[in-house]
Batch of 2 targets.
Target 1
Amino acid sequence: MLDHNASVLLIYTGGTIGMFEDANGVLMPFDFNALKEYVPELQRFKFTIDTVQFEQPVDSSDMNPDKWQKLVWIIEANYSKYDGFVILHGTDTMAYSASALSFMLENIGKPVILTGSQLPIGKIRTDGKENLLTALEIAVDKDPEGNPFVTEVCIFFQNLLMRGNRTTKINAANFKAFNSFNFPLLAEAGTQIRYRHDLMHRPLRGSIPKFHYALDPKVAIVKIFPGMSAEVLKANSAIPHLRAIVLETYGAGNAPGEQWFLDIVDEWIKRGIIVLNVTQCASGSVDMERYQAGKSLHEIGVLSGYDITTEAAVAKLMFLFGLGLTRQDVKIALKMAIVGEITVAVN
Ligand code: ASP
């Protein structure tokens, strides 16, 4: 049910949705007011839409923890004033931002929807209009008692509402640019918007939202590949005070069984670096017990990332170390789903 008395804060960070082509055909960000001119439909909504934009709209390739903090700050400062928040964001790093925000906005009881587009909103065939208009509708959709349907950080793209920290960008050209391989859709927009209320992440009863700012970016991603040399592997960890490595492995969490490889990973762990095993596959989960190639990693102390995405793994590690947790507590938290980012087996 659309709440016509509701209000949404539309936050514009940049990205293709609000870009124009310069004389050389290069896409450049433009002012948010210009974007509004291209979407006159916005004026037909009865609910209030206020807008705020980054002083310098950015291509999302320039997203970083500082800008995530800025988003958290905007949401915290406006949390009580609005029923929901829609963030316009470039698609390239949207899954990273959605993952980070899902941890930084703890116990939110309101929708925070990220969306963007593959074609600038000024183009006739743009996907941006539908994405924007439906994201706004979702941000004010409520049950008859006035409770919001969505109470978590999501990405809405091409008719699909996905848990933010489960998403991955899958296509650089198609309008269906995101997928949530390891977790079902939270809603699908057709003639009606059909929600999976049973899957929605809910804030703890009686809890108040908590806004986290501290992130520790001393995290690296190491993607293994056949032919990777010891030099290349070592170079990835030659960073002082590195806290964690997201090790992107094959299949169910497998890596070369050669001694030099295991020795280097063992040395990382002895240096106090947390090594989190995440599969290179788009879907499925790490299971280091399945093959010897995974078992050896487990034996030296590599942790399972289960079915987490690389995007969410990076964000979760930055967040956990940002909280100032001990290495031991970070290890415990990596086994738990904090905001639905991994599927924890119930035995
Ligand atoms: N490079 C753009 C960005 O991520 C692509 C997009 O918006 O789709 O900001």
Target 2
Amino acid sequence: METITVKFGGSSLADARQFRKVADIIHADARRRFVVASAPGKRSSGDTKVTDLLYRCYDAASRGGDWHSVLDQIRQRFADIIQDLGIDFPLDKELDAIAAHLSTEPRPDYKASRGEYLNSRILAAYLGFEFIDAATLIRFASDGTFDDDATNALASEALKGVERAVIPGFYGATADGVVYTFSRGGSDVTGSLVARAVKADVYENWTDVSGMLFTDPHIVPDPRPIEYITYRELRELAYMGASVLHEDAVFPVRKANIPINIRNTNRPEDEGTWIVGAVPTDRRIPTVTGVAGKRGFCSINIEKSSMNGEIGFGAKLLEVFAECGISFEHCPTGIDTMSVIVASSAFAEKKDEVMEKILTRLHPEYLSVEYGMALIAVVGHGMVAARGVAARIFRTVADAGINIRMIDQGSSELNIILGVDEADLEEAIRSIYREFR
Ligand code: ASP
């Protein structure tokens, strides 16, 4: 039988009303057998996520402050859900266990993980599914780093023969049972690991938006939704800040070629976005799949006569950045000029060291730094074979009266990166949307 692994985010499980929607979605398709749950998220914009309350509790306890009132808020969140769903649950006993850990364990991970743990136990009871603790499936090494191979072996074995189960997201444990969490939003990663372990046909990631959009809706009102996006395209856009998923959630399913379907718990009728290895051949591939941009870059510009003939010049220049621990984004070159584009925040910390090393090792005739650059990634497999895409991008941006400060095209032709003034970022994205929507 086909299998779907479903992951529900915090807003999908924020209260009993959302639990009911989740149960309807799960019961609507018998293939939805493995459920990964987040902790209760915000019920409205001013609300606080249970995970944040748990961290607050931990902070208060480690400062010797009063954590009881925060733990009571957490108790109330779960008590409301349990009461409204009409299930039996030993909440006080569970919260006593958390309270005991507050005074004994120095790290926050165990406490932070309890939102997922409790919510999953409640959901399992409500659905009549088995509850399987992530501590027994997701393995961390004793130094707290995630162990992918051990997890895959452990989870594949443990979930074999399991009919239906709810598994908490966000955390795992060492072989000795010491709990560690992923970074924030990490339930997406758990979902992906479970999907791979059970060889799911699809990994459905249910959230509160109907998938990804062509670009940021704060910049372009109502941009067109993305129906299909490849893992590689997603990576390019996510790097520029556009994503609905935790960055590390793509790798496990990508390796196993399991498609991810981003869905909306509040609008289950929407098809959402499919994240796939390759777009099905019967689908029209748009020229541009999406556009994303980010501010906060600067360009270090160097000029030196006959630079082109000086073998190793580029290597020496990039070595300076490597030694200073600064990752470079792009490196456009001319015959006698070279620029290195880096994040301004990383550069600011090491500016004097970088400039000093460049001056003493490379003896440039001219060295300057230009701040205030934004980068825009125009991404799409459809650009690979199409002619004139670059021309269309440059024309539409020029028509908007915007100066392009840098251009870079990746060798895969999957993306074209533009550098513009930070002030022009939004208008440049709007002009590209007008051209390719
Ligand atoms: N509850 C955790 C967080 O708020 C993990 C998750 O929801 O994915 O970050």
